[in-house]
Amino acid sequence: MKALGLWLMLVGSLRLASVWFGFFNIRSLRRGVYSKSQVTEVHGRTFGIWTLLTCTLCYLCAFNLENKTLYLVTFLSFVYAFFHFLTEYLIYGTTTVRNLSAVCFFAGTSIIWMLLQWNSHQPQGTLKAE
């Protein structure tokens, strides 16, 4: 498995832990992500479902790096998460720079790595007959 695939599996696993917090440990979600706002159980479950979807994308993409559509959707999930948390910090003030730093590390690293690897996961040895 390629290094990017292993990275996506790691990030997917970390996201899976966040799913647990969204559904079953709302206090940890509040403390670890949205520490400057009130987080209801509905917000927690919504966060959990959104994170479960992005976790699924990470795992699927890790095993199918050559699938351009899946690669793009997974890449965009990182872009959306990055900008979501950036606006939560800069505009809405619901999170702290400490909480934002973890998101920036994982989403930022993933965005840059996926951009650098954009065309490198194409099937090899396919020649077109002319």
Automatic annotation (TrEMBL):
Q: Can you say where in the cell this protein is located?
A: Endoplasmic reticulum membrane
| Claim: Protein biosynthesis is one of the keywords in the record | no
State the membrane topology: Multi-pass membrane protein
- Keywords in alphabetical order, please: Endoplasmic reticulum, Lipid biosynthesis, Lipid metabolism, Membrane, Steroid biosynthesis, Steroid metabolism, Sterol biosynthesis, Sterol metabolism, Transmembrane, Transmembrane helix
Q: Which GO MF terms does the UniProt record name?
A: protein-macromolecule adaptor activity
Chain segments annotated as transmembrane: 6-26, 47-65, 71-92, 99-118
Of the GO CC terms on this record, one is: endoplasmic reticulum membrane
Task: Give me any GO biological process, just one.
Answer: sterol biosynthetic process
Major location (coarse): endoplasmic reticulum
Is-annotated flag, keyword Transmembrane?
yes
Q: Which InterPro entries match?
A: Erg28
Q: Which family does it belong to?
A: Belongs to the ERG28 family.
The name on file for this protein is Ergosterol biosynthetic protein 28-like
User: What organism is recorded for this protein?
Assistant: Herrania umbratica
